Amino acid sequence: MIVAGLGFSSSATVESLQAAYDAASIGHDVSALATASDKKGHPALAAFADALALPLHYVAASELAGQRTLTCSNRSRATYGTGSVSEASALAAAGPQARLLSPRHISDDRLATCAIAIGGQS
Q1: From the centroid of its chain, how far is CA 19?
Q2: Domain housing 66
Q3: Does residue 80 contact residue 65 with C-beta atoms inside 8 Å?
Q4: Which of these, 8, 17, 26, 92, could form a disulfide with 48 (CB 3.0-4.6 Å)?
Q5: First to last CA, the chain
Q6: Distances from the Cα of 43 to the Cα of 34, 49, 71, 90, 119, angstroms
Q7: From CA 2, how far away is CA 15, in angstroms rounded?
Q8: What is the tally of structural domains in the chain?
Q9: Ramachandran quadrant class, 61 (left: phi over 0; alpha: psi -120 to 50; beta: rest)
């Protein structure tokens, strides 16, 4: 499974999410979206997931904290205990032995990030 992990501020728009997703997902056949569980109910996220017609997985903060990321945001580290919410969400949702195909990409308005991970092959 290939997962697009999303991180974003409360003021992010559908356009913010789309821009980050477009930058990160080039060349990848994404099958699901993922983000931190406390983002549930964000209107832009719901609209974005509906527009892409992809399932959306919510990742518990405890699962985010255990993920090793390639990039580091001080805000993500302080809030979630991980360097990147988008990278950690993608890795956690993709399953055991997942790896990043794309580190986080940041939208031009700096309100959203997206990273792509693939689940481990058995």
Answers
A1: 13
A2: 2-118
A3: yes
A4: 17
A5: 12
A6: 15, 10, 27, 20, 28
A7: 22
A8: 1
A9: alpha
Per residue in 21-68, pLDDT tens?
999 999 999 999 999 999 999 999 999 999 999 999 999 999 998 788
Structure tokens at 122: 């058995």
Collect all residues with Cβ–Cβ distance below 8 Å to 75 and sequence separation of at least 6: none
Regarding pTM above 0.90, the answer is yes
CATH of the domain at 85: 3.30.420.180
Q: How much is the average pLDDT of 9-25? A: 97
Residue 116, beta-bridge partner list: 4, 102
pLDDT at 122 over 50: no
Q: Give the span between the Cα atoms of 52 and 46, in whole angstroms.
A: 10
Strands (E), 29-111: 32-36, 56-59, 99-106
Task: Name the band, by pLDDT with cuts 50, 70 and 90, for residue 121.
Answer: low
CA separation (Å) from 44 to 1, 15, 54, 62?
Answer: 24, 9, 14, 24
Taking residues 94-119, what's their average pLDDT? Answer: 95
